[in-house]
From TrEMBL:
Annotated protein name in UniProt: DUF6545 domain-containing protein
Keyword vocabulary terms for this entry: Membrane, Transmembrane, Transmembrane helix
Top-level taxon of origin: Bacteria
Record lineage: Bacteria, Bacillati, Actinomycetota, Actinomycetes, Kitasatosporales
Keyword Transmembrane helix: yes
Domain DUF6545: 265-374
Transmembrane segments: 12-34, 46-66, 86-103, 124-145, 165-184, 205-225, 237-262
InterPro entries: DUF6545, MAB_1171c-like
Length: 410
């Protein structure tokens, strides 16, 4: 099979490849909704404004680049193919927003404010000039036949429209190349938060995929100049690459916020569950079950459980045996536990003993209160230790040996 046949086969297979523009539009809208509260609250922050502009223009590009919207725009205005310069302008504005984002991200320090302002003015001026040129070139071009999906290749050799197509592709490629390089450089920067690094990875993949969009478009246009037909690159590969790229970019903005939010929720719920053994042990001390509010937030339930436990520990402090805690600590070390783990087990053994001692103590039993600083600060670690009853039993048995030996010797 010749290379020509292979190319034709690939083109035939990929002709059916198409991703709806509404998918990235929805994902980008979700990213904008997530970021919008921060953008409105910190509107003076130029970085957040750049993010908002980027997401807004990205949404607009996919809404107005959808074939149905293109046909509607042409029909409403009564001008064949008027949607072309409009979509090109939105894509150019999106490209400018990419550069503005990296400008403010890279030069956001106080000592670079003047440099940031100069770069911002340069980007806005150049890309605003590109938008004006796009409309001038369209006005000069002769494009009477409406093209919904393949305008770039259909008018690839048409005077002025040819220059317009090359201009918007060049503006897009320059912005995308610069942004891709800087994003991948930032990924390698030390000290980045894990979720932010993942967000940057998705952004990097998205911007790199955007280069495929431009390459497919340009290849199809050049093929027309040389008398070849690679229109499937323009009508299928380029739009699909743009949709995939936009989805990755949107995910890149969503991941840091959604990831951190979900992680915080998981940590709160994990801490709440880890305190259950200690809360259950202290029920007899606190006089019944802990207060439960089904409609309370996870944070509020955690606060109530922590308060319930700390109040019970303060009441139990006069029954804590400091000598037992020291023996239990030595016993845990002797059993092979490391120091931190031995301290947690010793505290747990002391609390279990205090609860039992309180149950046997007569009413009005007056004892001096022990130091509960460690217990109050490390209630989660102590509660997790209580979740391993076999280890608690082993430490209690070993800690009781010296006392029994002394008693027998006497």
């Amino acid at each position: 099979m010749t290379p020509l046949h292979l190319a034709e086969g690939a083109g035939g297979f990929l002709t059916g490849l198409y991703i709806s523009f509404w998918l990235p539009a929805l994902v980008l809208t979700a990213a904008l909704v997530i970021k919008l509260p921060s953008i409105l609250k910190l509107w003076r922050d130029p970085l957040l404004r750049a993010v908002g502009g980027l997401l807004l223009f990205a949404c607009a590009v996919f809404v107005f680049a959808a074939p149905g919207t293109i046909a509607w725009t042409n029909r409403v205005t009564g001008v064949p193919n008027i949607a072309a310069p409009w979509v090109y302008s939105l894509l150019t504005a999106l490209s400018a927003s990419w550069l503005l984002l990296v400008v403010h991200w890279r030069n956001g320090h106080t000592d670079r404010r003047e440099q940031t302002r100069r770069a911002t003015r340069w980007v806005v001026s150049v890309y605003a000039g590109v938008v004006v040129a796009l409309w001038v070139l369209f006005a000069l071009a002769d494009v009477p036949v409406e093209q919904i999906r393949d305008l770039d290749t259909y008018y690839a050799s048409t005077p002025f429209m040819r220059e317009e197509i090359l201009l918007y592709l060049l503006a897009h490629a320059v912005a995308c190349s610069i942004t891709t390089r800087l994003v991948w450089n930032w990924i390698r920067t030390d000290g980045l938060d894990g979720w932010l690094r993942w967000g940057l990875r998705f952004l990097g993949i998205g911007y790199a995929t955007n280069l495929l969009f431009g390459a497919a478009k340009l290849t199809a246009v050049v093929a027309r100049w040389t008398g070849h037909d690679l229109d499937w690159l323009n009508t299928n590969i380029a739009p699909s690459a743009a949709c995939i790229a936009a989805t990755f970019v949107a995910i890149g903005f969503i991941v840091p916020h959604a990831g951190q939010y979900l992680q915080d929720r998981w940590l709160v719920r994990r801490r709440y569950r880890s305190l259950k053994p200690l809360a259950r042990l202290l029920r007899t001390v606190a006089g019944g079950r802990e207060p439960l509010a089904l409609r309370a937030t996870a944070e509020m339930r955690l606060i109530r459980r922590e308060t319930y436990i700390r109040d019970a520990l303060l009441y139990l402090s006069r029954f804590l045996d400091e000598d037992l805690r020291r023996r239990a600590y030595d016993a845990a070390l002797a059993l092979g536990h490391e120091r931190g783990r031995a301290q947690e087990l010793a505290a747990a053994v002391t609390i279990v003993d205090a609860v039992e001692t309180r149950g046997r103590a007569p009413d009005g039993d007056d004892r001096s209160e022990a130091d509960t600083t460690y217990l109050l600060q490390e209630i989660q670690a102590v509660s997790e230790a209580l979740g391993r009853p076999d280890e608690i039993s082993a430490v209690r048995v070993r800690a009781a040996v010296p006392a029994e030996s002394v008693s027998t010797h006497d």
